[in-house]
Design goal:
The chain has one domain. It contains 5 helices and no strands. The longest helix is centred in the last third of the chain and has 15 residues. The radius of gyration is 17 Å and the shape is elongated.
């Protein structure tokens, strides 16, 4: 199911369809409803572009100890080392 917003509504709001998609993506990421990867995909942006959009809105990337541990596990699997 796609989302169809009438052009006259977008004009009234003074926003393009792409801009609205970015706004929705950023909002859902900020509220924790989408991961960074999901949000950037929804916004149809690459990692750096999406991070720039977050920065413009003073929204920080959510990164916690679980994320760090996952990154370390991934790194260790790539290098053949076991996590300590």
């Amino acid at each position: 199911m796609g989302l169809n917003i009438p052009e006259n509504i977008l004009k009234k709001a003074e926003i393009s369809g792409n801009e609205l998609l970015i706004e929705i993506s950023v909002y859902l990421y900020d509220k924790g409803r989408l991961s960074l990867g999901q949000a950037k995909s929804l916004a149809q942006l690459n990692q750096i572009e999406f991070q720039k959009e977050l920065s413009k809105r003073d929204i920080y990337i959510k990164y916690n100890s679980d994320d760090l541990n996952q990154d370390l596990d991934n790194l260790n699997s790539l290098t053949g080392k076991k996590a300590s």
